[in-house]
Design brief:
Layout: E1 4-6, E2 13-15, H1 67-75, H2 94-104, H3 130-139, H4 144-147, H5 164-174, H6 178-182, H7 199-210, H8 230-240, E3 251-260, E4 263-268, E5 271-276, E6 283-285, E7 302-308, E8 311-319, E9 324-335, E10 339-344, E11 347-352, E12 358-360, E13 377-383, E14 391-398, E15 403-413, E16 418-423, E17 428-441, E18 444-445, E19 456-462, E20 465-471, E21 477-486, E22 492-497, E23 502-514, E24 535-540, E25 546-553, E26 557-568, E27 573-577, E28 583-587, E29 593-595, H9 603-607, E30 615-621, E31 624-630, E32 633-642, E33 647-652, E34 655-668, E35 685-690, E36 697-713, E37 718-723, E38 726-731, E39 736-738, E40 755-761, E41 764-771, E42 774-781, E43 785-790, E44 795-799, E45 804-808, E46 811-813, E47 824-829, E48 835-839, E49 841-851, E50 856-859, E51 870-881, E52 884-885, E53 896-902, E54 905-911
Parallel strand pairs: 6-8, 12-14, 17-20, 23-25, 29-31, 34-36, 39-41, 45-48, 51-54
Antiparallel strand pairs: 1-2, 3-4, 3-7, 4-5, 7-8, 9-10, 9-13, 10-11, 13-14, 15-16, 15-19, 16-17, 17-18, 19-20, 21-22, 21-24, 22-23, 24-25, 26-27, 26-30, 27-28, 30-31, 32-33, 32-35, 33-34, 35-36, 36-37, 36-40, 37-38, 40-41, 42-43, 42-47, 43-44, 45-46, 47-48, 49-50, 49-53, 50-51, 51-52, 53-54
Helix pairs in contact: 1-8, 2-3, 2-5, 5-7
Length: 912
């Protein structure tokens, strides 16, 4: 970068050289003067480099991608900025990078600054950098022979921008892994621009990638001659710290033994060190680039702190696992010498405690040792990171409790007969209860179902069992009965309570009405009748008002296949005959549900169809028609196809329906554009759409279920799918869509990769169900269950009931015992609701290269005629060696790998 100043002797501006101190900080933390080049007048300009304010570089904002690495190295004294700026995007020169490497290795004490360092003539550097470069040559960080061919025609060697390839060498050598890198020089890097990487650098690139210190760029390129920014270099060296045992004077790594406001206590090499923290202290975790919070630091976890004078400037959680072990036993007695005795199984053991040991009851409340009674079950927790294994917590797990208290209900678990409460002191308690538990509000006895989480209560406990719970305020409760009447102004409701009396309730302002099959139901959709009214569950608020009405049963009668005799549009009276010519008279009203061949039925539209002879399906209560459906379609399974008399018979429910057809009747089925009656057979599930006069079949649609993988969602509810590598598309905006758990979803919630079962009526999707798919390794199997280890490491034992399909080596088998431990499988539900395991194809290969553009890998051919050497990768391909997850880019030429494929797509790569 360029700096300008006004010389005292004249007003002419003089340009200084690149500021050396951007990457140079003295061991004591003081700022260093930058070396400068000579100006045209033969004068030098000295520019001072200064450390950034604590915790801040004004050009490194919170959330910046390299923030973590910049601040750690800045606080460690490996780098610093200038006047509060870090300039993360500036290119790093070779002399600056070497200075940083020497400080990264903590070898500044070996610098020889007493005399001018002798350097090769082509390696010109600023005066300040000469000792650093001389030491780098001595330590082998740079090779004199390699640098002899360096192009210095445009700038000096020191001020030449460092390339990615050159920096990679420097980084690996500073980690003392030069020999390890050179051993890999004859291997391809796997990058698309491998040919552009110098042969002498390929091993360094390979090693840097495998150590996760360097990564490829867009289109799987390494860009060896590209420049390196200050932020990138900070990231390289910061990641490298985990691979070296170099100690920095102001950096400590240890286990957290104390946390309180404004202070973290670490146990470092057997000694306790206290660090002050405040709201400006930056927190990070090892596995994330973004900032963490103070709450992410837990007791007994491994933490790195950079700081001086007892103040933490940087905190990083290195290992978030708490280093603790637990022993459970029966408390025997307290012993002298700060010891306790307890029986662990059949053994009597003693454990030491000190002033830092916490004693707690089963609810996490602090107690004294004297509060622990003999025969209480206690848990002793000890840290495991020191030889002393100090006792950290002694917790009572069970003991006799007799108390009265107040608090808030947290959870009611009826299966285990336990209730969890948060007491007045804020501690969580859990107690069992019996059928004798009394729950009341004022003078009213409530049921357990009325006890809700969040209720404020008073409670009593005897012998660790809840005796009484008294609510401080009313709660919601539920009652069931038969709906008799809704008041004329819809403010009251009368119902006959199950098992007895007639009761009246006030309605809340807008009570919720739930009726299965009716969306956005209202009070007008309810059926009221003294004998045949809706069976309902009413929800009452604390003021005893009805806030919710859910219909749980209806007494309506069906009348299918009725024939219209007459309809009077003025009186709304409909007369019909059933199949036995028995007459019925019904009245239609604004509550009658209508259904005919239209999306939005109206009463006027229905009335135009109620002519003599029209076929209807009805439901009714007394003489009131609840629903009227004009029969325009029959659904059922084919029981007979009479081609001679041109009739098709369906079994629909408990009745057989026979419909004539003409030669013009269309047959529609998914995936066959020229279907005919000959494609149908007895037992097929179909929908027969009738002609206008309901006398002949106009269309016969076969109902089928097919399984697809979603490729993409497009506009207007259209989905693109594939099955057996063939793609197709259809609209699902009018279909019923459900997710993996049966919940309703919208088309926009379908995503690429979803496995879906689609129910077609002919070629029209009527229902779409997202199918859960699990890719995993079989670790155990028997006749009724299989244990699966998923790619994320989670293990789950799956009990399998009902039909099973095991698709293996081209055959479909019907027993779980056809699975083998070690098989990789995809577990799904098939279209017939059977549990299906597709066993992945296994291939052992030698890795060749990775094609990032096509997302595929190439393997070594086994023979010259072997054309099966290119494999597509799944979108979330799992690459690993044992339990260590890898990236595809980390694989190297000639690596032995095992491929697991599903439909010719690699789902897992196991490096041997």
């Amino acid at each position: 970068m360029t700096f300008k100043y006004n010389h005292p002797s004249h007003s002419k501006k003089v340009v200084s050289a690149v500021l050396a101190g951007m990457m140079a900080l003295s061991a004591g933390g003081a700022a260093m003067a930058a070396d400068t080049t000579e100006t045209g007048q033969g004068q030098n300009a000295a520019v001072q480099s200064t450390a950034a304010p604590t915790g801040l570089f004004s050009d490194i904002k919170a959330g910046y991608w390299a923030e973590k690495h910049v601040y750690k190295l800045a606080y460690q004294g490996i780098l610093l900025g200038n006047n509060g700026l870090f300039r993360p995007g500036d290119a790093v020169t070779q002399q600056e990078a070497i200075t940083m490497a020497i400080r990264f290795m903590n070898t500044e004490s070996q610098l020889n600054t007493s005399t001018a360092a002798a350097l090769p003539t082509n390696m010109q550097v600023g005066n300040y950098f000469k000792p650093y470069v001389a030491l780098a040559l001595q330590l082998g960080l740079v090779d004199k022979t390699e640098e002899a061919s360096s192009d210095v025609s445009k700038t000096t060697w020191g001020q030449k921008p460092a390339t990615r390839e050159w920096i990679t060498k420097l980084l690996i050598r500073s980690l003392n892994k030069d020999a390890e890198a050179k051993a890999q020089n004859n291997q391809s890097t796997g990058f698309a621009d491998n040919a552009n990487i110098s042969d002498s650098a390929k091993g360094y690139v390979n090693l840097a990638v495998s150590l996760d210190l360097a990564k490829g760029l867009e289109n799987n390129k390494f860009n060896p001659t590209g420049s390196v920014t200050r932020a990138q270099l900070a990231t390289f060296f910061s990641r490298g710290e985990s691979l070296t045992d170099t100690k920095y004077p102001n950096t400590s790594t240890g286990y957290v033994t104390g946390l309180k406001d404004g202070q973290i206590t670490l146990l470092v090499d057997g000694k306790t060190v206290n660090y002050v923290v405040n709201s400006n202290t930056p927190y990070f975790t090892k596995d994330s680039e973004t900032r963490a919070s103070a709450s992410d630091v837990k007791l007994y976890t491994k933490v790195l702190i950079v700081g001086s004078a007892g103040a933490a400037s940087y905190v990083e959680v290195v290992d978030a696992k708490q280093q603790m072990e637990s022993v459970e036993g029966t408390f025997a007695r307290a012993l002298s010498g700060n010891k306790i005795g307890l029986f662990v199984g059949e053994n009597y053991e003693t454990y030491t405690y000190d002033e830092n040991t916490a004693f707690m009851d089963q609810n996490g409340k602090a107690i004294k040792l004297s509060d622990i009674t003999v025969d209480s079950i206690i848990e002793v927790q000890r840290e495991t990171f020191s030889a002393d294994k100090k006792t950290v917590v002694i917790r009572v797990k069970s003991g006799i409790v007799n108390k009265s208290d107040s608090g808030v209900v947290a959870e009611v678990v009826t299966s285990g007969k336990t209730i969890k409460l948060v007491n007045a002191a804020g501690a969580t308690e859990q107690y069992t209860y019996t059928d004798n538990l009394i729950i009341r509000y004022q003078n009213r006895i409530l049921s357990l179902a009325d006890l809700k989480a969040g209720s404020t209560v008073k409670y009593t406990v005897k012998d660790s069992v809840l005796q009484t719970i008294e609510l401080n305020q009313g709660v919601e409760q539920s009652v069931r009965g038969t709906l008799v009447e809704i008041g004329g102004n819809q403010s009251t409701l009368m119902y006959k309570r199950d098992g007895g009396s007639l009761e009246a309730k006030l309605l809340s302002e807008k009570p919720e009405v739930i009726i299965n099959g009716i969306q956005d139901a209202t009070l007008n959709d309810l059926i009221t009748d003294a004998n045949n009214g809706d069976k309902v569950e009413l929800t009452l608020n604390s003021d005893d008002q009805v806030t919710r009405i859910q219909v749980i049963g209806r007494q309506m009668e069906p009348l299918n296949g009725a024939t219209v005799v007459s309809y009077n549009s003025k009186t709304k009276v409909l007369t019909v005959l059933d199949a036995n010519k028995k007459p019925y008279v019904f009245t239609l009203d604004e509550k009658t549900k209508m259904d005919y061949n239209t999306v939005k039925p109206t009463l006027a539209g229905l009335e135009s169809l109620l002519n003599d002879g029209r076929k209807l399906d009805l439901t009714y209560v007394g003489t009131r028609a609840l629903s009227v459906k004009v029969i325009y379609k029959y659904e059922g399974t084919i029981s007979n196809i009479d081609t001679t008399n041109r009739k098709i018979s369906l079994l629909s429910g408990n009745q057989t329906i026979t419909v004539p057809y003409t030669t013009a009747a269309a047959v529609e089925m998914y995936n066959k554009s020229t279907a005919s009656l000959s494609d149908l057979k007895v037992g097929d599930n179909v929908a027969v759409t009738l002609g206008t006069n309901q006398d002949v079949a106009q269309k016969i649609a076969l109902k089928t279920v097919a399984q697809f993988e979603v490729v993409s969602m497009e506009s207007n509810g259209r989905v693109r799918v594939k099955s057996d590598l063939l793609t197709s598309q259809f609209y699902v905006d009018q279909a019923v869509l459900t997710g993996e758990s049966g919940q309703s979803i919208t088309p926009s919630q379908l995503t690429a990769g979803n496995l879906i079962n689609v129910t077609f009526e002919g070629v029209t999707p009527k229902a779409v169900q997202v199918v859960k798919r699990t890719l995993a390794e079989v670790t155990a199997v028997d006749a009724t269950s299989v244990t699966l280890k998923q790619f994320n490491g989670a293990t789950d034992k799956v009990s399998v009931s009902g039909p099973v399909k095991v698709v293996k080596t081209g055959s479909t088998l019907t027993s779980l015992t056809n699975l083998t431990v070690g098989d990789r499988v995809e577990m799904t539900k098939d279209t017939d609701n059977s549990t299906r395991f597709r066993v992945l194809t296994v291939m052992s290969k030698q890795f060749w290269s990775y094609d990032g553009v096509g997302n595929q890998i190439l393997v070594k051919r086994e023979t010259t005629s072997d054309m099966n050497y290119r494999f597509a990768l799944g979108s979330n391909v799992f690459v690993h060696q044992g339990d260590n997850t890898l990236s595809v880019q980390s694989l190297r030429d000639n690596d032995n790998i095992v491929l697991y494929l599903l439909n010719n797509v690699v789902m897992e790569i196991q490096k041997q």
